[in-house]
Amino acid sequence: MDTRPATKAGSWYEKDPEILAGELDEYLAKVPEDVDGSSLPIPGARIIIAPHAGYAYSGPNAAWAYSCLDLSKAKRVFILGPSHTYGFSGCAVTTFSHYSTPFGDFTVDRDTIERVKEAGGMKNAPPRNDVAEHSLEMHLPYLYKRCEQTFKSPEEFPKVVPIIVGSTSRADEKDIGRLLLSYLKDEENAFIISSDFCHWGSRFDYAVYTPDGNIGKLSSLHDRSPKPSGPPIYETIRLLDEAAMDAVKSGSHDAFVDNLRLTGNTVCGRHPIGIAMAALELYAKELNDEGMSRFKVVKYDRSSEVIWPDDSSVSYVSAYAVL
């Protein structure tokens, strides 16, 4: 099998291309014409963080990141997403030559895949896990839509470089970030970093609460816990996500890793984000400008406003950085 099928089409998002196009157009149309004082797409915004839940949940949020994404010079798009289907250390690359979407197929840049794989000592992703993984697939219809808006024909579309990220240490993320730095600096490359933010609830083994806003001292709730008498639970979730977003915006890879160690916040794409931040930090140092190449958060949402301890929610964030 040479082409990875769009396995989530028909469940996580619409399978019919006309219906799907209408849905994505609707989400994109709701994004303001200007973001951070710039018309869209933002010139030079070649890297984004965007969520990967079902479009009914995260689609409106992801539209913000994709509206910012500048593909005008892109010849390849790296997509880094966390593994939800199997555990491993480091990164794994796809073995497929094409990735399918309801709109059409993307060509995988096999040459770049092989170079990155060799340089980083990466593994091949088992095809069955690659097919089952949603963290990469959920970005492809949005990417296809934005490519249609940017290029004259599918023949001009950039190729994709799908990379599944497993468990990585702080040092691992710095090493992989250093490996990707040369690609990050090349204006012919764009990057999609796939991540949802806080997964709150007992089903995620993360049901923390703070009555006084101190995220350094979190207590744990369970399904039968009484409703907190203090601020609602969703305020704790907001504080946790804001702290993680502040760390992302800081430009410091260490600050991001340290924040998640402090709170345990269940940011599922923490390792892809960590790799991106490590690369961006190195790039800023080369430019001798710490204010350059920092992520800017443009949209934050939660799937629900949790009040009761037996409830749950997932948070979504859109961000971009100008390179």
Please characterize this protein's 3D structure.
The chain is an alpha/beta fold and 323 residues long. The protein has one domain (3-199, 268-305, 316-321): LigB-like (Protocatechuate 4,5-dioxygenase, Chain B). It is built from ten helices and 16 strands. It has helices spanning 17-29, 55-68, 110-120, 127-132, 134-137, 140-150, 170-185, 233-250, 253-263, 270-287; strands at 3-4, 34-35, 38-39, 47-50, 76-82, 91-93, 98-101, 104-107, 123-124, 159-165, 189-194, 199-200, 208-209, 219-220, 296-302, 313-321. The strands form four sheets. Strands 4, 5, 6, 9, 10, 11, 12, 15 and 16 form a nine-stranded mixed β-sheet that branches. α8 runs antiparallel to α9 (253-263) and α9 (253-263) runs antiparallel to α10. The longest helix has 18 residues, at 233-250. The mean pLDDT is 97.
Question: How are the SSEs placed, and which strands pair?
Answer:
Layout: E1 3-4, H1 17-29, E2 34-35, E3 38-39, E4 47-50, H2 55-68, E5 76-82, E6 91-93, E7 98-101, E8 104-107, H3 110-120, E9 123-124, H4 127-132, H5 134-137, H6 140-150, E10 159-165, H7 170-185, E11 189-194, E12 199-200, E13 208-209, E14 219-220, H8 233-250, H9 253-263, H10 270-287, E15 296-302, E16 313-321
Parallel strand pairs: 1-7, 4-11, 5-10, 5-11, 6-9
Antiparallel strand pairs: 2-3, 4-16, 6-10, 7-8, 12-16, 13-14, 15-16
Helix pairs in contact: 7-10, 8-9, 9-10
